[in-house]
Each structure stands twice: as C-alpha cells, then as structure tokens.
Amino acid sequence: MEQFASLQGEGTNTGLAAWFIRLGGCDVGCSFCDVKESWDPNLHPLVSTDEIVEAAVQSNAGSVVITGGEPLKWNLDYLTSQLKINGISIFVETSGSEAPSGTFDWICFSPKKGQAIHDFWFSAAGELKVIIENETDIEFAEQMAKKVNNRCILLLQPEWSLRDKILPVIIRYISMNPKWRLSVQTHKYIKIP
Q: Within 13 A of 141's CA, how many CA atoms are on the CB side?
C-alpha cells in the first residue's frame, strides 16, 4: 500500500526510527482501524518485493516495521530474508489471525476479540498490545495475557477516538495491575505518519 520513513509511534519500541512497509489486505475489519483503505489490496498497485527491499535499504533506517492491514495475509519469507541479507532489523505488527511466515526481530501481537488466532503468535510475541474501547476489552486482554510467553511485554492502548474517556480507566487498571504497561499513539499526538 505504502512505504515511508517515520518513528514507531506506539508500543514498546516507541520513538524508534524505522522504514514502514504497509501491506494492503485485511479481513479482520476492526471498527476503530485508522487505515481502512488498507483492507482491499486491489486498491493498491502491486510492487515487486525487490523494489520494497531496495527502498528499505536506501532509507538507511536500519529497521523496518511491516504492518498493514494484516501483513501476514502475504507470505513474508522472501521479503524478510532479503531484508535480513541487507542487515535490516525487522519488526512486524499482526493481529495473529493468519499463519506465520517470515523471520522477525520483534513481534507486536495485537489480537482482536472474536477472531481466530494461530497459537504460534502467543509463543513468539515480544509484546501483546490490546486496544481498549471499554472495560470488557480489559477482560479480553487478561485472557490473552494468560496465553502469551513469559517474556512478552503486556500493553494496554486506548482506542484513539475514545482516549479521553478510556485513558483514566486504563491508568487506574495498570496502577492496580502493574504487570501491564500503557501504550499511546504518540505519532498521532505529534502528528507524524
């Protein structure tokens, strides 16, 4: 769908300079998705994987965030192997709805209620990031936290359009449950892509 240089705006790696590769295609359909134009891959011209890799190399960012849509709708084996050959660190953001492919240095696993999740993501995740719209989402987050590996960093993130309402709820919950951390969409506050 698009490629661009920016800073990671949310999660454990907030502030990291990276080259973003946003792949089109998603059938998860989150109501709060801020990139709904990524859902239909047919809206975006195909770009060869070698061109994507070359753009990442030329960016000199040293790290790439592969996101979407749902990036694992595509087989990422070739893309990630070529990025690795060029010494680039690879971060992926996934809902876990698709089977794994590719090799990653960091996995941001952000499951959504009501979707099937492949078990691989629970054991491989570097961070579990759950978007919170209401208090029942915190219950879902706790269910997911019971399934992830013991190295996984646990993050609660307010849904952007409800942040003023839900942020105090999340802060209160984290203060009583310190295994969790807060993630906010820093890139939206500072108005970068």
A: 27
User: What are the b/e assignments for 15-26, b being 16+ CB within 10 Å?
Assistant: ebebbbbbbbbb
- pTM more than 0.90: yes
pLDDT at 113: 92
pLDDT of residue 34: 72
Domain span at 131 = 2-189
Q: What is the Cα Rg of the chain in Å? A: 16
Q: For residue range 8-67, what is the model confidence (pLDDT) as tens digits?
A: 999 999 999 999 999 987 787 777 767 666 667 777 788 999 999 999 999 999 999 999
Q: What is the CATH number of the domain that holds 8?
A: 3.20.20.70
Q: Which residue has the tokens 């309402």?
A: 165
Contacts of 94 (CB under 8 A, 6+ apart): 70, 71, 72, 107, 108, 109, 110, 121
**How many Cα atoms within 13 Å fall on the side-chain side of residue 160?**
13
* HEC-encoded secondary structure of 158-179: ECHHHHHHHHHHHHHHHHHCCC
Contact predicate 88/62, CB 8 Å: yes
Amino acid 151: pLDDT? 97
Q: How far apart are CA 25 and CA 41, in angstroms?
A: 5
The Cα–Cα gap between 127 and 192 comes to 23
Tally the domains of the chain. 1
